[in-house]
Amino acid sequence: MRAILVVNPQATSTTAGGRDVLAHALASQVKLDVVETDYRGHAMAVARSAARDGFDLVVAHGGDGTVNEVVNGLLADSTGDPGRLGSVPMLGVVPGGSANVFARALGLPVDPVEATHQLLNALENDRRRRIGLGLADGHWFTFNAGLGWDADVVGRVAKRRGKETSAALYLRASVGSYFRPPMGRPALTVRIPGEEPAEVVTAFVSNTDPWTYLGDRAVHLNSGCSFETGLGLFALNGLRLPTVFTHVRQALLTKSDQHGRRLMRRDDVPMIRIDAAEPVNFQVDGDLVGQRTRVEFHSVQDALTVIV
Fold this sequence. Notes:
Layout: E1 2-7, H1 16-27, E2 31-36, H2 42-52, E3 57-62, H3 64-74, E4 90-95, H4 101-106, H5 112-124, E5 128-136, E6 139-141, E7 144-147, H6 149-160, H7 167-179, E8 188-191, E9 198-200, E10 202-206, E11 211-214, E12 217-219, E13 231-236, H8 241-252, E14 263-269, E15 271-284, E16 287-307
Helix pairs in contact: 1-5, 2-3, 6-7
């Protein structure tokens, strides 16, 4: 098996010693190349080359941004049609960031040493899982994407964090973005095939449930959503404090089922289109992509094989 280990040396939990141990352990089972990233987009370029060169496995050692870049590189030559994805290398993940949302959602250990051990065991026993992904405006996402308040939070976190993020930073950013939204609160129109358009002020699209930026505290927005189903939509047509408190409380309850008169929620949908009256922030897998006035979100089933 030919494999590439992609290491982000700037990620929170990655160290030179940890990289060497991981590389040595992987090299005992696969024919391994190791690449350290040194600029934004480097991991995507490496993964794209690996897919074109016929590698069997790409292991991402870093945070969610590194994983997202690798995924987008692996699928860079696809059209979003699962029937035309062709032969795509498998993905392995050894968490090295602060939040590690995708790894947690897969049930992987967030400790790099434990994750390395599990990865080696999975390779030895050929444990793999096919997962679906989301595709939004040409960007593949593994766990979520959104327009409005959540994207404002992501943008605020990106401006204020150093090498490490924390649950407290996300909470402060959420409060700050609520009271001082950088793009205002322009109306968003949600369109789902077969339904009447609906107006909201913030929209969150999930590829699985639960996920979290809050350490071990799971966040439930779309309990009927998973890596094996379509996308989940969680959208609010108002952000008054009682509405926010209600849904934050429901989100943090174990296996909660979100409901409310201000909530538009759909589970397992194949496509969602959102139009904004004015440009709003747009985030993918916890990274701010920019501003958009229209985004189409598509579910692509069986898009990727992950070593678990």
